[in-house]
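User: Watch each token:
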Amino acid sequence: MTFLRNTFFYLVFYLWTTIFFVIFSPVKFFTRKFAVYLSKKWTDSVMILCKIILKIDYSVIGNENIPKDESFVVASNHQSAWETFFFVCLFDNPVFILKKELNSIPIFSWYFKKLDFILIDRNNSFQAVKHIIESIREQKPSKRAFIIFPEGTRIPPNDKGVINPGVFAVHKLLKIPIVVLKHDSGKYWKNKEYLKSQGTIKVKIYPKLRNYNKKEFLKKLETYFY
């Protein structure tokens, strides 16, 4: 039953995604507002498919900790592809900080540009942090959530990753609050595995961090993640 459910999900997901983005492929000619609307509709549909077919739902604690009147950085742990869908549903018009290799995906790369996503070269840490800071500084007045994965890659549940201190540089130089988000998506949406497990993903949003020194900041982040 699990195998059939997962197979059906992949068939529906890829068919629906192909149809959706072929129809809405002329994103270069869309207004940014319409591109945001399409992005939200597609991710909402993916979350519905997850719930109905895969039986993967989620619960959120700490919604009240999401800033309403300022830009902020969301520092999240990274376990699977699930959270990339979820964050578009949770936050209003978020900006993702992604590895530049994703820019090679047809059509999606056009949406990344239209949505102001920040693409970085992970092999050049200094230039990557510099680009992130410059990009966020430029977009900061728009009062948006900037999504960053400080671990840099997907880490299996119960494993401990290495937190890139670049997130502190962003916090310090831009005087922008950091909202730490922890989830356990990898328990159900297993990374690089065909079969997903049904269950409820737990998401916790912590109060924003502001005015910490580097040691305290990274220690706090590590405590929340692990």
